[in-house]
């Protein structure tokens, strides 16, 4: 077995949490159950990976099998990467029958004709998801297995999710191969990025529920009996305000769980407007700002701002529109015309 | 040992952790070599005890103390004292250069408030900047505390002071292209924490400040408040979020950046003194 392959397998196994190694190897299926029985999965990872490499040696593992192991690892730990969303367009409206073999052939051919040295691996998953791993080389160098690009393409949709590879120069070629292979004619990058692949899918496939169009929530009922407080007026007002905020939040964000995004970025090119009483800046040029919101779960975080008293309800549409518009990168300019307070986002 | 102007450049572009230091008792500027030797022995002893150990490499740690006379404000200020820990790996050849492991700098820029009525035996160097591994800071700090009967305390920077810094520095002219003015806010007590970075084009930030500041060279509390309110209301107009209800944790300008945990980075030699003056003031407030 090639020593570079051995090293690659060793390092891939080391990335896996110790308690999961056996499961991942079973999913891989390259080593038999008998072989796996011989490995002591309770020793330190260094030793486990050495034993695994030994077994792979016995089975003469090559780069193809190693690449499959890597795809499996990245499918399980997909949230370690940042995924960007791409949307493809085709001229006609015909729904063509998707031929997986044809897709793979065309994809490989497009890449291999441009770059002699590439390692291309496919793996199909449920939900019509095709995972593609591409390791990039040059006409004179073997592919770099440690910096591959990953594409997740859902064949029944025009969407593909690409993990931002360090080697950005290969991105156009990757997009081209994808478009050609799937019989589309155009591809564009959406302004939408997240660690959570499933949440991105929820957003573009409209699988989350933001606004209940058909379902009418029961009107909030005034409680007939007032529990503790003597001063009924004060409790009532507070409660009313809290209910108002909750209702507006619900309208804006919906009832269901929010898709998981980690950031939103706004490039502001709007005018600075001050309180007329303050004798400050009144330029005719935009006040240029860059605002970035970050959180482990951005939308939940934003949703909690108004109830916490840190924001007005309703929250700005610039924030609540994120799932609907399927984007978390925005450029906001002043809208010219009647209502200078409104903004456009190109 | 006196330094040269080049040496103040070593303060630039490094992240310094700030401490306030109470006056040092019987610290003598003439005995720096002695102190270096004593500190060196102390460090060696601590390392033998198993503290302040750098894993792996065998290191000889060299201690150097020197004066930085350029770093003082008024006549009454004590000149700054620089402490450097450097290493030369025992394995490497004699010609290899020493690597600086850790630096610390005692300074006082316009610290008259503190030094004014100080008895003779005491040396006022209220501001301490540290760069390098925490373990070294711990050892060096302990030695100074024991030897000169002083107390080191981490210097936090409040949102109030951060606002002052941003107002003071946004108006400073820099010759080369300035970096954006950035404010970072944190909202930790939500179910999911939120961080907000609000960066403004340096020209636009400066233009706003220029219309607010009435007298060049002077800044009033009211002007700082108006400046921050303007920025907050511009933000609110777009996002309906009240930044004033969140915690300002970090500010960045072309001159310097500062974090509420008491970490600063100074970026411009021309304004070094001004920044240190402000930090000296904060250190003195913490001591008094």
From TrEMBL, chain A:
One of its GO terms (biological process) is CENP-A containing chromatin assembly. Keywords: Centromere, Chromosome, Nucleus. Its main location: nucleus. GO terms for cellular component: chromosome, centromeric region; nucleoplasm. It is found in: Chromosome, Centromere; Nucleus. Pfam families: CENP-N. Signal peptide: none annotated. It comes from the Eukaryota. PANTHER family: CENTROMERE PROTEIN N (PTHR46790:SF1). Belongs to the CENP-N/CHL4 family. This is CENPN protein. The gene is Cenpn.
From TrEMBL, chain B:
InterPro entries: CENP-L. It comes from the Eukaryota. It holds the Pfam family CENP-L. It is found in: Chromosome, Centromere; Nucleus. GO terms for cellular component: chromosome, centromeric region; nucleus. Keywords: Centromere, Chromosome, Nucleus. Belongs to the CENP-L/IML3 family. This is Centromere protein L. The lineage of its organism: Eukaryota, Metazoa, Chordata, Craniata, Vertebrata.
């Amino acid at each position: 077995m090639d020593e570079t392959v051995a090293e690659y397998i060793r390092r891939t196994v080391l990335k896996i949490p110790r308690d999961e190694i056996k499961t991942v190897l079973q999913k891989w299926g390259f080593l038999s159950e008998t072989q796996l029985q011989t490995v002591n999965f309770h020793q330190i990872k260094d030793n486990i990976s050495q034993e695994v490499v030994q077994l792979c040696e016995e089975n003469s593992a090559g780069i193809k099998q190693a690449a499959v192991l890597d795809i499996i690892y990245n499918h399980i730990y997909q949230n370690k990467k940042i995924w960007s969303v791409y949307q493809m367009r085709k001229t006609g409206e015909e729904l063509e029958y998707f031929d997986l073999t044809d897709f793979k052939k065309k994809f490989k051919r497009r890449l291999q004709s441009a770059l002699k040295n590439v390692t291309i691996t496919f793996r199909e998953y449920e939900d019509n998801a095709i995972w593609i791993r591409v390791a990039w080389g040059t006409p004179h160098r073997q592919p770099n297995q440690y910096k591959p690009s990953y594409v997740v393409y859902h064949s029944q949709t025009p969407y593909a999710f690409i993990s931002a590879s360090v080697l950005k120069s290969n991105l156009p070629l990757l997009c081209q191969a994808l478009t050609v292979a799937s019989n589309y004619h155009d591809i564009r990058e959406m302004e939408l990025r997240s660690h959570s692949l499933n949440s991105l899918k929820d957003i573009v496939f409209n699988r989350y529920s933001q606004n209940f169009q058909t379902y009418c929530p029961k009107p909030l009922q005034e409680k007939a009996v007032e529990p503790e407080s003597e001063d009924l007026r004060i409790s009532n007002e507070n409660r009313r305000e809290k209910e108002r905020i909750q209702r507006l939040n619900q309208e804006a964000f919906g009832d269901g769980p929010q898709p998981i995004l980690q950031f939103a970025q706004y490039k502001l090119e709007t005018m600075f407007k001050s309180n007329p009483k303050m004798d400050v800046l009144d330029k005719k040029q935009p006040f240029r700002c860059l605002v970035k919101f970050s959180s482990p779960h951005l939308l939940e975080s934003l949703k909690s701002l108004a109830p916490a008293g840190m924001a007005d309800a309703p929250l700005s549409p610039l924030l609540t529109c994120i799932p609907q518009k399927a984007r978390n990168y925005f450029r906001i300019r002043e809208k010219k015309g009647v209502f200078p307070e409104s903004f456009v986002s190109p | 040992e006196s330094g040269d102007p080049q040496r103040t450049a070593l303060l630039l572009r490094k992240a310094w952790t700030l401490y306030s230091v109470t006056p040092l008792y019987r610290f003598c500027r003439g005995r720096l070599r002695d102190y270096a030797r004593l500190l060196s022995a102390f460090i060696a002893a601590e390392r033998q005890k198993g503290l302040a150990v750098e894993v792996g490499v065998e290191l000889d740690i060299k201690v150097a103390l020197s004066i930085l006379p350029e770093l003082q404000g008024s006549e009454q200020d004590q000149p700054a004292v620089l402490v450097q820990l450097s290493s030369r790996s025992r394995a490497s050849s004699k010609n290899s250069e020493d690597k600086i492991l850790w630096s610390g700098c005692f300074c006082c820029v316009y610290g008259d408030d503190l030094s004014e009525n100080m008895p003779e035996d005491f040396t006022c160097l209220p501001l301490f900047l540290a760069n390098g591994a925490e373990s070294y800071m711990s050892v060096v700090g302990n030695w100074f505390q024991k030897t000169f009967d002083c107390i080191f305390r981490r210097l936090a920077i409040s949102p109030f002071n951060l606002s002052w810094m941003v107002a003071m520095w946004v108006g400073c002219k820099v010759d080369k292209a300035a970096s954006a003015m950035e404010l970072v806010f944190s909202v930790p007590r939500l179910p999911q924490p939120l961080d907000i970075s609000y960066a403004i084009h340096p020209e636009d930030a400066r233009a706003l400040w220029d219309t607010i500041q009435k007298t060049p060279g002077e800044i009033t509390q009211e002007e700082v408040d108006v400046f921050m309110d303007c920025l907050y209301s511009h933000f609110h107009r777009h996002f309906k979020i009240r930044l004033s209800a969140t915690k300002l944790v970090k500010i960045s300008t072309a001159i310097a950046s500062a974090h509420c945990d008491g970490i600063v980075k100074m970026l411009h030699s021309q304004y070094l003194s001004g920044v240190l003056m402000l930090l000296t003031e904060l250190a003195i407030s913490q001591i008094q």
